[in-house]
Amino acid sequence: MSDELVNFNVLSGIRIMHIHHFELVEGARHATGLTVVIDVFRAFSTVCYLYGQGAEKVLAAATPEDAFAFRKQDPRVILAGERQEKKITGFDFGNSPSEVLKHDLTGRTVVLTTSAGTLGLVSAGNASGLLTGSLVNAGAIVQYIRQKNPETVSLVAMGYNAVIPADEDRMCARYIEAKLMKSQVRPDLMEQSIRNGTGSRFFDPENLNSPEEDYHLCLDIDRFPFVLVCEKSNKYLFLKKIDMP
Predict the structure, then answer these.
(1) Which of 68, 64, 62, 85 is nearest to 166 (CA)?
(2) Which entry of 24, 64, 116, 194 is 20 to 30 Å from 167 by CA?
């Protein structure tokens, strides 16, 4: 874990914002304050594209069984998600922005479950507020944090399958931190590091579960002007879309 301090001018004076960095499931469990659970490849990028295609509501489920149980209540519900990058048997979608873009989801409810991102959300039980994190809406996340002006922010990089640290999630956390601190960011260097690291699997022609198009869609920085705030809804998490002006 690493810490940074950010000063904000507020009406009552100067507030010190403490920014903490965590990783993987254990990090999610230790996160406090306003917490951003980051999964760039691909869960929380996918959720943004689901809303971009017109979805009315997206829920996060801990397990495929929970997702199937929700669809039993409403057969129109769309199931999306993966385990080990592979679409779950019986699901409508995998965890792929390029797949989502092929469909009109206007008015539909989607339940998502993934190996890392959704696991991080359900593990962040000590957070006072909870957001999903990705590069495609990173600017909106920064704006939301500034608006809330919390004393503590936790940035949790969930990594690959929630067991291996991942360049893209670490870079996203640093990007959000830099924007909060009003520091200069080099997206080209960030992209190069990701492409040469854990992003390289999207350029492996034998890896059919990770199409190259997903890589580019997940790195389309600030494509979406909204945040996804997590609200408890029975045994599920409602990923509520909030537009940022």
Answers:
(1) 85
(2) 64
